[in-house]
Design a protein that fits this description.
The protein is an alpha+beta fold and about 500 residues long. Helices cover about 20% and strands about 35% of the residues. The chain folds into three domains: about 80 residues, Immunoglobulins (Immunoglobulin-like, Sandwich); about 180 residues, no CATH class; about 140 residues, no CATH class. A hairpin with a 5-residue loop joins strand 2 and strand 3.
């Protein structure tokens, strides 16, 4: 007797060997080719997709350039259904066991393990026609007209290839019974433990345009001029790959050091006490930088129509507005020298009148820009009522033609995805329709190294040498500022 299951189970297998393949993305496709759900095969190659009452089930195994597979949902069994993985995703990497931060690295090479399921990063980029390139400026010539653009949605798929030991940062030797304190300073990640994000989340924010990245489903990238969709796709894939590689390199170049504690603890440093409790020799501690290698795949972008809406709110140069939206305004300041003044106005203490005047005058001079920033970072319900008062060129309320989801802020404009291609201009409609018939396929794959937070500690015990009378004839030789003892021949 077979027990009814509330989900369909698929097993992703290798085309040649039939072995289970972990870390393969599987998407459920709705009408129009849009993804209705996303899963990744587990360590046994299994993917469990909740059942629905539709007659057909359309899946895509692998990246966006793979063809869809359609099933008769009414005839699918409850037992695992095998699906072959694309060849470029079927090669399972070897993942080393990951040691936690501040723990010693393995003293031997760990046995190969199956690659871990991937981590997905989503990015969004706004494209405009050459005639609308002026919207990228902080002060558009016409800050009241609606503009139509392109939403480029793109994903990064990360698959860990395992953690390993990087460079040796510091070594210190202790004789029997000796003790020393060392300070470890790590400037690569956020200092506050309770506010710390996962390392790959920080990488995503560094890769994207971080101005209004908080709270968005996809990290925004810089706006581009899209004369045609194939070139926009290729340029976006190249931009994302180059930024990701540069970001990972920049993280490794950030400050990470170990020094002996001299009584003054620097901000953000953690103290470690090392002891040699072994009486039979000298114990040497090695501080090692832990790193993790990742296989990264930039997927083929997806295009959707977008609407750029200008906003100009009245009377936002007030202390109440600064306290409520000060975080977003400070991160988007056009004049970075005013950052300290904005912090004072946001604070609870009394502020000199000259400081307030400088901040308010700057905001009033760029009112459309800061209005768009506040709308993008504000409450969705308040934004809905603001959008309901505006209409598109055909007279429809904006709430009927757009999704109330902010994908980016471009100059004085806030970008929203349109519900349908029918609501955009004929020029964009023609480009998007031809793209859906023959989608541009471009992707990129590369390998990066990301530092792991913390350091690894490895110890090495060397036998102590007992001094003898023959050492009395040794002469002292000074080399490079240190004294060495060399024995005479």
């Amino acid at each position: 007797m077979t027990v009814w299951q509330d989900s369909w189970t698929f097993r992703i297998v290798d085309q040649d060997t039939g072995a289970a393949v972990p870390g393969v993305p599987v998407s459920v496709l709705e009408s129009g080719g849009r993804a209705g759900g996303y899963w990744v095969s587990d360590s046994d190659g299994l993917v469990r997709i909740p059942k629905h009452d539709q007659p057909r089930l359309r899946l895509r195994v692998g990246l966006r350039n793979e063809e869809a597979i359609e099933f008769d949902a009414r005839s699918l069994p409850d037992t695992p259904i095998p699906l072959t993985a694309p060849r470029e995703l079927a090669v399972a990497g070897t993942a080393a066991s990951v040691a936690p931060a501040d723990s010693p690295p393995p003293s031997h090479t760990p046995p190969p393990a199956q690659s871990q399921p991937g981590h997905l990063m989503r990015f969004a980029r706004i494209g405009v026609l050459p005639k609308d390139r002026d919207v990228t400026a902080a002060a558009s010539p016409d800050p009241t007209a609606l503009r139509y653009g392109l939403l480029i949605e793109i994903e990064l798929a990360w698959q860990s290839l395992g953690a390993e030991a990087g460079s040796t940062l510091y070594s210190i030797s202790l004789g029997p019974g000796e003790e020393v304190k060392v300070a470890v300073s790590d400037g690569r990640w956020r200092k506050s433990p309770d506010a710390r994000e996962r390392p790959l989340q920080i990488v995503a924010k560094m890769v994207g345009a971080r101005q209004i990245g908080d709270g968005l489903d996809a990290m925004p990238l810089d706006v581009c001029v899209a004369a045609d969709l194939p070139s926009a796709a290729a340029d976006t894939v190249k931009l994302l790959a180059e930024r990701t590689e540069r970001t990972c390199e920049a993280l490794r170049r950030r400050a990470l050091g170990v020094t002996e504690f001299d009584g003054e603890k620097t901000a953000g440093a953690s103290l470690r006490t090392l002891r040699n409790m072994r009486s039979e020799g000298v114990l040497t501690y090695h501080f090692v930088e832990p790193i993790e290698r990742h296989r990264v795949i930039v997927r083929t972008p997806r295009f959707r129509p977008a609407l750029l809406v200008p906003f100009q709110l009245p009377n936002i140069a007030t202390r109440e507005v600064l306290r409520r939206f000060g975080h977003a305004i400070r991160r988007n300041l056009l004049d970075r020298t005013l950052a300290a003044d904005v912090d004072l106005v946001r604070g609870p203490d009394a502020v000199p009148a000259a400081v307030e005047q400088r901040v308010y005058a700057h905001i009033a001079a760029y009112l459309p820009y800061y209005s768009a920033t506040i709308i993008a970072a504000g409450d969705p319900a308040e934004r809905f009522f603001a959008l309901a008062k505006l209409r598109d060129p055909r007279g429809h309320p904006l709430t009927d033609v757009i999704e109330n989801i902010v994908v980016d802020r471009v100059g004085n404009y806030v970008a929203f995805p349109l519900r349908s291609v029918a609501h955009t201009t004929p020029e964009w409609r023609s480009m998007l329709t031809s793209s859906s018939a023959q989608p541009p396929r471009t992707s990129h794959e590369f390998t990066v190294t990301v530092p792991v937070p913390g350091v690894w500690l490895r110890s090495e015990l060397l036998p102590a040498r007992v001094a003898t009378e023959s050492d009395a004839g040794a002469e002292e030789v000074k080399t490079e500022g240190r004294t060495e003892r060399r024995k005479r021949g």
